[in-house]
Amino acid sequence: MNFLTSILAEISRRYPGCWQIVDDMRERRGHKGFPNWPDYCFLPLAGSFAIVSGGDKLTTRQIMSYGSDIARLGALAAWRISQRIYRFDPALFDELWNTTVTDIPTEIFKRLPEWCIYIEIPRPPVRGVFVHLECDANTGREELRFVFDLVDGKLDQLLPILLHLNKKTVADSLESVYQEAEKQALAHSINVAVERAESEIARAKILPNALSLVLYLCSINADYARPDAPLPKRTKRGLRLFAPDTPTILEVGINVGAALRRAYAYCRENDADGAGSPVRPHVRRAHYHHFWTGPKTNQELIVKWLAPILVNIDKGEIETTKRAVEGG
Asked: Do 218 and 325 meet the contact criterion of CB atoms below 8 Å apart?
């Protein structure tokens, strides 16, 4: 966790006073001509742009050069307030990593549990990813922002990728990511190394895999204690949010992970050798299911992760595990 604290310190050294400026911008939200934005967005990236640029008007070339820092600062400012690290049980992580996300409406990501989360990803060269929601202060365009943390642990190795939420489904948004990465890599030689890295991450399907982890955290039956929103404290300058001193771990999937391991162990122990025997005990892959609920004028999108289904297993011997796996 020290590496995340170091990254926060590094960006605050690069942009002195940035956290105070962020607080001031949030305090001015919607007042005296200052833009307003939805509650799910901590601070639009226009705020990060103002900090990185020092308030100056940048050329197109400068914007391309500073673009990654704008995205990094935006994610870190939102994550700094809670500093929670979401750590998935290994068995659940593996299942989610291989669960396909396709026709789920992108609206579900507005159920993100915090302004910004950090998910551990034990898949080199990626160590983790920051995820937060963005709402453009001028156009209102909504995005799900990812900043991938590479194993080097340096600020300049945080690679941003965005997912437009104006697409109908996750699959449509992913296709847009691939097309944009290629377009930017060809159009802007100044930033070609970063754009190629982003494209490679997307093409290696790290982004779809990471999306599955995020989608699980937005699911109604996810196995974790959804955190409360941070409470501001009253100061002489009004209500303020104070960052914790150190990051904390939030465990995800302890119960489901244990059930999965029991189910897999049962399948291994009862694996017949074939030759005329019935279908061997096995686990059918997990998948996501979504539906809309409520009146037509105010419907709510619900997503559930349907855990692996145990097939041809002695119900008397493993009923407890079966209920745990299928029910989450």
From this structure: no
112 forms beta bridges with none
Tokens standing for residue 182? 């290629």
Establish how many alpha carbons lie within 13 A of residue 112's alpha carbon, considering only the half-sphere containing its beta carbon: 28
Domain that holds residue 323: 255-327
186-217 pLDDT, tens digit per residue, is 555 445 555 555 555 655 568 889 999 999 99
Beta-bridge partner residues of 38:
none
Judge if 245 and 277 occupy the same domain.
no
Bridge partners, 305 (sequence order): 288
**Residue 231, both tokens:** 């409470």
Contact 18, 11 (CB under 8 A): yes
Among the candidates 234, 249, 264, a domain finishes at 249
* Mean pLDDT (whole number) for 27-42: 90
Burial of 219 (0-12, 13-18, 19+ CB in 10 A): buried
Predicted confidence band of residue 168 (pLDDT cuts 50, 70, 90): confident
Mark whether 33 and 106 lie in a shared domain.
Answer: yes
Where do we find the tokens 């982003």? 198
Backbone phi, psi, residue 28, to 5°: -85, -5
Tokens for 24, please give them. Answer: 């001031």
Q: Is 3 exposed, middle or buried (0-12, 13-18, 19+ CB in 10 A)?
A: middle
pTM for the structure as a whole: 0.85
Looking at the structure of the chain, the number of domains it has is: 2
